[in-house]
Design goal:
By secondary structure, this protein is of the alpha/beta class. 53% of the residues lie in helices and 8% in strands. It is built from 22 helices and seven strands. The protein has a five-stranded parallel β-sheet, with helices on both faces. A two-stranded antiparallel sheet has the order 6-7. The protein is globular.
């Protein structure tokens, strides 16, 4: 569909459908994408693109990509995939689909890399060197005690997208091991301990296969600089897992011989361990869209109209505002309540559409918007511990989150948002500020 022929949603039902919380991809990027780099005051995509441009075909690097969950990272990563698919063979992975996101290990990522690279080569009519592959498979059979027969019995070729009857043993074994890691704590522990006993062999063999894949790709597609693997949704790991993964095993994450983009939780930027200092480059951050006029030592900030308009344009790009809203003011109220958080805006927009339709309103009214914001507020109230509110009040005034476990958790659950650009600062989520416990904590703090 050509963008010029695109008609914006003009009913509540169509607006609800258009304002999906899923990342944009394919033709939806062309229809709906809004470049927010000016109001974010930073451009993570341009920075990553520069690295990919500067690389020579024989180079590989590790790139860290971060931001709050729901800030638009996945959409930006999809853009990177599209921008660089002519120069790299890009493999885009959603880690939560492959392993247990609440307990991810670097060895899981190693297995995922081999599984996906083998599959991508097979799709292109290529395959690993037989000698290298046989050597790798023999080692895996020895340490896991798996055989062709035991794997065949437990893996459904029909139920796994990366398998066909001609898939090699290693492909089927990776599918089985990752399924066990995702499904069983006991098997997960056993598999990881088994692999870590001879980590140097695992890493060396994987890198031999990656080197072979690079040669095969370059022979068939000379325009490719190599492999680019994007690990999306790794930012969903809890703060304790993130510290473990990006601090204790930072070296292992950087030792695979291909270019990898890892999404990391923004919470670990505030870890006192400073885990990211072990990586060669700084993380590329997708911050909140700044809708405020910054002022330290003042809790209730004025709004930045350029920022508000930019966030509102995310809805305006998809929806005929005159047809769906009673007035543009209702849209601006949703924008203010979002704090510049893209997914939160979309969630409240969908809620407002549902509420207006349920109440037989022809368009979204101020009442519908207030209800949608309230539902978002109640969602936060259900999980924020009461003792966090004094910390949230402190963030509201000081514009900085504490560098401890509570600060990390508040960033992780988006009760505190990060803004970036000319200066880095934090601010409570607007729907959290409406809470009575927050108001009491703020009053107690300001009366001291």
């Amino acid at each position: 569909m050509a963008t010029s022929n695109f008609q914006r949603a003009n009913t509540l039902k169509l607006a609800f459908q258009a304002c999906t919380v899923e990342p944009l991809e394919g033709e939806d990027i062309e229809k709906y994408y809004v470049d927010l780099s000016d109001v974010r005051k930073t451009s993570a995509v341009d920075n990553v693109s520069t690295i990919l441009d500067f690389q020579e075909p024989s180079d590989f690097t590790t790139i860290l990509f971060t931001g709050h969950r729901g800030c638009g990272k996945s959409t930006e990563l999809k853009r990177i995939q599209k921008l660089w698919q002519e120069n790299y063979h890009v493999i885009y992975l959603e880690v939560n689909e492959e392993t247990d996101i609440n307990d991810a290990s670097y060895t899981d990522l190693y297995l995922i890399v081999i599984k996906q690279v083998e599959f991508e080569l097979r799709k292109l009519g290529l395959s690993f060197d037989k000698g290298l592959l046989q050597n790798f498979e023999s080692w895996f059979k020895e340490i896991t005690k798996e055989t062709e027969e035991s794997v065949e019995k437990s893996v459904s070729i029909e139920g796994e997208a990366t398998l066909q009857p001609q898939a090699p043993f290693i492909a089927k074994l990776m599918v089985k091991l990752l399924a066990q890691i995702k499904g069983s704590d006991k098997q997960k522990t056993t598999i990881r301990q088994t692999l870590e006993k001879d980590l140097s062999r695992l890493k060396a063999d994987i890198n031999l296969l990656l080197g072979d894949a690079y040669v095969k790709l370059r022979q068939k597609f000379p325009q490719f600089k190599g492999l680019l693997i994007i690990f999306d949704n790794l930012d969903r790991v809890p703060p304790t897992v993130a510290d473990h993964l990006f601090f204790d095993y930072a070296a292992q994450l950087q030792e695979l011989h291909c270019t990898i983009i890892y999404t990391v939780p923004i919470s670990i930027l505030c870890s006192p361990k400073n885990p990211l200092c072990q990586f060669d480059s700084n993380p590329h951050i997708v911050p909140m869209v700044n809708i405020y006029e910054f002022e330290r030592d003042v809790c209730h900030l004025n709004y930045n109209q350029a920022g508000l308009d930019a966030v509102a344009s995310l809805i305006e790009k998809r929806v005929d505002i005159d047809a769906v809203f009673a007035s543009r003011q209702e849209l601006l109220e949703l924008t203010k309540a979002s704090g510049g958080h893209v997914r939160q805006l979309m969630q409240m927009m969908r809620s407002a559409c549902q509420t207006a339709s349920t109440k037989k309103h022809p368009k979204i009214t101020a009442e519908d918007v207030e209800y949608a914001i309230k539902q978002q507020q109640f969602g936060f109230e259900r999980f924020i511990p009461e003792e966090h509110y004094q910390h949230l009040a402190q963030v509201c005034i000081n514009k900085d989150v504490s560098k401890d476990e509570i600060g990390q958790l508040m960033l992780f659950n988006t009760s505190v948002l990060e803004y970036n650009g000319n200066k880095r600062w934090n601010y409570p989520n607007p729907v959290v500020k409406r809470n009575e416990f927050f108001q009491k904590a703020l009053a107690a703090l300001t009366s001291q």
